[in-house]
Design goal:
With 82 residues, the chain is an all-alpha fold. It contains 2 helices and no strands. Keywords: Membrane, Transmembrane, Transmembrane helix.
Length: 82
């Protein structure tokens, strides 16, 4: 039996939050990496290196959110709808 929309609403909301969170973190990481590159090009190597590490950490968290939370939840929702 297929679940109703009301029963799937919390899962769909969770899927939306994980998807948007991963996308926003990816964009923030890309922006920080661009900032780091520009900072190094303007001669501030120490601050640029720190920004590279922070950007890489943000991109890593975006990847983890997408693979550890979003993908399994997407499979779960698809299985419930099938």
């Amino acid at each position: 039996m297929r679940p109703s929309f009301v029963e799937l609403l919390p899962d769909l909301l969770e899927l939306l939050v994980f998807g948007l969170g991963s996308a926003v973190l990816s964009l923030a990481g890309a922006y920080i990496e661009r900032f780091a590159l520009l900072t190094v090009q303007h001669g501030d190597l120490g601050f640029g290196a720190w920004a590279v590490v922070m950007g890489a950490a943000v991109l890593y968290f975006a990847y983890l959110l997408g693979t550890d939370k979003f993908h399994p939840k997407l499979r779960e929702v698809r299985a419930a709808l099938a």
